[in-house]
């Protein structure tokens, strides 16, 4: 039995003992009464009765333990030409005073606040300040349009919005304030105030009586202490794409989250206090929550906050420059970032310019890591390249090569073995467990380990229906795949309407809801098609209402604009075509899977339930006219 096998077995055989031990890595005001409350499945609660504060564990305790002068955050923004270092002591001052400012605006334990911020340290300060006073934050990714922000405002009902005047996105400067104002105009719920951080790159116009200047608030505020919270109190809501236009508000608690992230920093990423760690993502995504902000800070590491892109800011050497300049030990990013670097610098000309001798490991997740990119990266950087698989819902990896426990042999195409805590099975549609090598739904036996979602915000029923009822006793990951004879997991893709565009999780259902609103569209379908750079990109097809004479090419352009305006540029919804009809089953269900196979050049069987098989040729001809399947 390997070391990893022993750790894994203990985690699934004796989960309470296992996580009770992991909980010792944190500071508690009071220990929990019980490690796991299983009295109301599928609503499991970790560490009930425990009292703690996530912000205390991420900052105060490190200052108390002598890490005050260690850098906590390195902010690196190539386009604004800024590098700023914030020590743990400085971070404590900034967070506690901002928390005091939030309290002076009436924000208190249990209230919600929406954070709409670019990749600047103030985003982390805002999150940690909410955590400090027990307010529940909900960070919204800056690439979402005003309408999407409005949907989240209505659902989260924030007392405050915390934002900045704008962002640097690639080489562009984007103003956030008009977007936030528009979202508040569109939403039925009206937040009480908007706290805004003015940046030099773009100045926002402030509305007297509503907008509060960040710096003025801080200047007038006193530091706030950490509020003692129950481990089971909510820390944050993070909206993620589901199968409809209404995103799911994943709710995470304080205790389980902090325990799992602290444990994962060492076990999965081999990071110790004092190491320099970089997660090149965005605070708007779960990776940003777990591994730009909370994980590394709870561990006492130094986290890099990078406001740039892998290419173009200024070139394909950007990542190597950051790694070498800040002595980064390990990097976590999405495979798409490496595909972008590979495209621009296939021979590693930029790579060779930098000394990355301190660099030990590259971690990739968020979408499938194609073996080509894996081999290219491994051959060039000559350190382990570790694929790992997880989801917004889980908050940390479901399957990984847990290098901090033991580096297992890597099999390209597989994120290695289930992580400790995840008892994974492959089941068929009837819930019957399948043998090694057979493809089916990937499910995890309940209870899930700490750090996973505890429910969906204000939607317990949806939580049960979406994740817990298809296969009773198991969490349905919505991913399909198989486990081989050595226990290695292979994730083959989503079983639902979620797609991954450049590592960004999006719902084709949400896009369909938008374009179905066009007055000339009778019906439509959006599906994910393979893309060499972004992994997947959406493709739309629409049928015109009878009697419409408008040029379909004009309508197609309007549809592209509608998705951009209502969902956001990040959807990359650029390809859409008119078809005479859509393939359907006799009961009227659109055959999206069949169309996706045609677009991706994948073999498929025409379903026996198809209404009219001749339509398959029509769709194939239309798609081939658009260049599908793409090379
Ligand atoms: N705020 C506002 N707009 C944003 C945005 C943000 N935070 N992020 C992306 N967008 C916009 C882009 O500006 C672009 O707009 P455009 O259509 O006007 O040009 C659009 O959304 C699509 O962006 P993106 O998918 O990022 O494409 P790109 O061509 O600009 O860059 C990559 C391609 C691969 C370089 C980029 O996607 C990347 O760095 N990916 C890494 C992804 C990642 O870290 N994911 C995190 C999950 S782990
Ligand atoms: P998100 O919630 O944005 O993190 O997206 C989660 C989804 O991304 C998963 O359900 C998978 O479909 C996909 N995903 C994440 N990591 C991987 C990976 N390493 N391999 C394959 N798919 C992945």
Topology of helices and strands:
Elements: H1 3-13, H2 15-23, E1 36-37, E2 45-46, E3 51-52, H3 54-67, E4 71-77, E5 82-87, H4 88-104, E6 112-116, H5 121-133, E7 136-139, H6 146-156, E8 160-164, E9 166-169, E10 172-175, H7 177-186, E11 193-197, E12 211-213, H8 214-219, E13 229-230, E14 234-240, E15 248-253, H9 255-267, E16 276-279, H10 286-299, E17 302-306, H11 318-326, E18 330-333, H12 335-344, E19 361-364, H13 371-381, E20 385-387, E21 399-400, E22 417-418, E23 424-427, E24 440-445, E25 455-456, H14 460-468, E26 474-483, E27 489-494, E28 498-501, E29 504-507, H15 508-515, E30 521-531, E31 535-544, H16 552-566, E32 575-578, H17 592-600, H18 615-625
Parallel strand pairs: 4-17, 6-7, 6-8, 8-11, 11-12, 16-17, 16-18, 18-19, 19-20, 31-32
Antiparallel strand pairs: 1-2, 3-13, 4-5, 9-10, 14-15, 15-25, 21-22, 23-24, 24-26, 26-27, 28-29, 30-31
Bound molecules: coenzyme A and adenosine monophosphate.
Q: Can you walk through the features of this model?
A:
The chain has 631 residues and is an alpha/beta fold. It has 2 domains: 3-308 and 388-481, Rossmann fold, CATH 3.40.50.12780; 502-625, 2-Layer Sandwich (GMP Synthetase, Chain A, domain 3). Helix content is 32%, strand content 24%. The protein contains 18 helices and 32 strands. Helix 5 (121-133) links the parallel strand 6 and strand 7. The longest helix has 17 residues, at 88-104. It is globular and about 70 Å long. The mean pLDDT is 97. It binds coenzyme A and adenosine monophosphate. Coenzyme A binds next to strand 9 and helix 12.
